[in-house]
Amino acid sequence: MRLCIFDVGGVMVDGFDVAPAIAAQLGLPVDELRPLLRAADFELLHTGRISSPEFWKRFRATTGLTVDDEYWGAFFRPLRRPRMYDLVRCLREAGVRVVAGTNTLDAHYRIHAELGDYDAFARTYASHQIHLAKPDPAFFRHILAAEAATPAQALFIDDVEANVRAAAGLGMDTILFQTEDDAIGRVEAWMGADAH
User: Please, are residues 112 and 8 in contact by the beta-carbon 8 Å criterion?
Assistant: First the structure.
């Protein structure tokens, strides 16, 4: 069996970083906002231990800033990369098990699901649902166990170097996403001629 695990934001879609829009709404430079988001229990949000409304309640309490909407969902407009979706389809047609392994949160997951962004995958492993987030090695172990796959059978594609390093540390083949051309070529090389 061969298993491909694709990150979603930054690999399958663009437009996933809502921090600039939230910063503009709040009248802050984005480089000032990001530490505030991390401080307001972002890790708990990413691993599904609090909801988006609870996150913003905590954010208001810790920053004193006015938040008048659920900004994660309000500003989220993911845009698919069609060539990456074509790659997933080709892999599945070639008999590869292809799943998504994504750090996300409830509002973003709901919007992706409504748009059908996860439909290309045999299964989606979302951090807020499995209560584990990349680059924690337990995130990858969870997927491998659920898929009954060994690290040697798996390829992981992500645009975050720390996540790729964590997967490689478990013995998985990895690709650090930089461009579509590079990623597609490297996945096809991993597959051999069967991916064409």
Answer: yes
What span, in angstroms and rounded, lies between the C-alpha atoms of 49 and 46? 8
Strands (E), 12-96: 13-14, 79-80
Give the span between the Cα atoms of 15 and 138, in whole angstroms: 27
pTM above 0.70, yes or no: yes
CB 163 within 8 A of CB 133: no
E-only strand ranges, 38-172: 79-80, 97-102, 123-126, 154-158
Per-domain residue ranges of the chain: 3-15+79-195, 19-74
* 44-91 tens-digit pLDDT: 999 999 999 999 999 999 899 999 899 999 999 999 999 999 999 999
d(CA 118, CA 115): 8
**3-15+79-195, what's its fold?**
Rossmann fold (3.40.50)
Q: What angle do CA 145, 147, 148 make, to 5 degrees?
A: 60
